[in-house]
Amino acid sequence: MTAQPATPIVEIEEVAPTSPDAEYCLSRYYEEISERFEGGFDPARSVTPSLDEFAPPSGTFVIVRLNGKLVGCGGFKAMPPDAAYLKRMWVAREARGHGLGKRLLKALEDRARDLGHRKMRLETHRSLGEAQHLYRSHGYDEVAQFGEATYAHH
C-alpha cells in the first residue's frame, strides 16, 4: 500500500504588524523585492514606511504558515472614505504553487469587508508579474495612479 501525501496545513492568522512573526515575514519580503526591483527597494521611500496604521480597528496584518513555517503576509490600512489600502502582500518563493496567494487575498478582502471597507486599492511594481496576474484574475481593474508611491507602476 502506498502512503498518500499529507495535505498541506495552511494557517492564516491576524497578528500585530510589529510582532516578531510579522517582522520576520516583512524582512523576507523586503529582501526578495530588493533583489527583484531594478535599483533595489528601500522601505523608507515607500508610501507606508511604518505599519502602525495596519493595526485594528481600521486595518489588519496577517501572516501565513504552511505546515507550521512562516511563508507569507499581507495587510491593509484604511484609505478614506471607504477603501482598504492593501500593502506588503507576499508569499515565499518556496511556498508558491499551493494557492496561498489566492487564500491570502481572500482573507484580506473578507477582513476588509468585515471592517466596513467597500473597496480595496493596491499598487504593484512592474517586475511583479505574478502579483499583477493574481489581482487581475480576481477582478481588480487598473485605474489611474491614486498616490505618490515610488515603486508603483500598476
Could you explain the architecture of this structure?
The protein is an alpha+beta fold and 154 residues long. The chain has a single domain, classed as Gcn5-related N-acetyltransferase (GNAT) (Aminopeptidase). It is built from 3 helices and 5 strands, in the order βαβββαβα. It has helices at residues 20-36, 100-114, 129-137; strands at residues 10-14, 60-66, 69-79, 83-91, 119-121. It is globular. The N and C termini lie far apart (51 Å). The mean pLDDT is 82.
Largest sheet: 5 strands, mixed
Mean pLDDT: 82
For the record, the count of structural domains works out to: 1
User: What shape does the CA trace take?
Assistant: globular
Strand content: 15-25%
Number of beta-strand segments: 5
Low-confidence stretches: none
Helix vs. strand class: alpha+beta
In whole angstroms, the N-to-C terminal distance is 51 Å
If strands are numbered along the chain, what order do they take across the biggest sheet? 1-2-3-4-5
CATH topology: Aminopeptidase
Give the secondary structure arrangement, pairings included.
Elements: E1 10-14, H1 20-36, E2 60-66, E3 69-79, E4 83-91, H2 100-114, E5 119-121, H3 129-137
Parallel strand pairs: 4-5
Antiparallel strand pairs: 1-2, 2-3, 3-4
